[in-house]
User: Fold these one by one.
Assistant:
Number 1:
Amino acid sequence: MTARLAAPPMLDAEVRDARAWRRDALTPRDWLIPLSPRCLDELDAVTQQLRRDPLPPLVLTPEQFALGACAEVMRRVRDTLRTGVGLAVLDRVPVERYSVEENRALAWVLGSLLGRLVAQKWDGTMVYDVRDTGRQLEYGVRRSVTNLDLVFHTDAAWLDLPPELVGLYCINPAHEGGVSRFVSLVSVHNELARHHPTLLARLYRAFPWDRQAEHAPEDDKVTRRPVFQYDGRTFMACVNEKLVETGAELAAEPLDTEGREALAAMRALLDSPELWVEFTIERGQVQFINNRQFAHSRTDFTDASESHLKRHMIRLWTREEGRRSFHG
């Protein structure tokens, strides 16, 4: 007689706190956080010190500088991400004053005030440049290095320990397009529980995920994990339907009917305009999102013709658990 596997624990109560928002409940005032003149002076002082005594960004720590005002701002960002609406946008760093390497240093220092910075690629890349490289989309090429649109997703959804908080430091926005959208996966979960409880239960069971070639050459190309997880205390969501589709292809395992229906029901909610908010990030703004309870997307974009004006974001990941390596 074959033993039946116990059903995974599910979040079975509707969430009604600040994380469970809908579009009509938010305005930009809910996510915009101004940088005070004192904070801007502190950032200026960081660059002045590095001009006198250069160091690479990866060895910098907040303790090397006087950053009291910035630390207070980043505490507010952290609270907004973990217990609030899940989205915070610093407005703004005067990036035009600084070189690309100085901006990279400021992004690193601000991110270090938010949490423990971790690798964003298997090769150990800690600071990730988000820009159109001109590469064609193929196996192992992330859409983030193209100008193609990005569906609603969470970063590194296939990892056992995905990044908790994700930052984007905008040196240059796109010439046209590149609109950012954000949706609460807590609200999506609430809607699924109300209207599709059986399909919601399927999302708590494992799917195959494409690991996007971010692993040792001899490792499996696919991992298996659920979309939603709940340990009785903490809720976590990992979303990227395209990686589930390619994961199933790589594993030569067609998705079960219930799995396809569950993903379709979730996608319909993610694409519902009444659930998401949108804005276009501006030069010098720094966007942060809670990557475990909120998803983001981006429309396709057109770059400026001048190389120094092409879209360029510096991305950072934080995670407190595990090691600082990509897989944690």
Number 2:
Amino acid sequence: MNLRTNDFKVGLITGLLIPMLSYGILTLFFTLLTNMELMDPSGFSESWRSRTLALLAICGNLIPFNLHKKARHEASMRGMIFPTILFVAIWVWWFRGSLGLG
């Protein structure tokens, strides 16, 4: 599978992997900052931290989406939309209590 091809499957796999990898990297980064005492987590609730990291991870799909847009890979862009919408729906459902939705 070549990431430079205009393929629905490429977009689908990219749309699934980027947020999952981004969340892991961001969590690791903030854990390292906390352990090195460069960041004090006491001012933030655990819900705020996980909610924000998850949202930033989902927004990580914007970078490859724009790259596909510049290359005019419409099928790849279409493939990225479905996992992104799925992740956003899961995010809203998971954090609905802290968002005042339920």
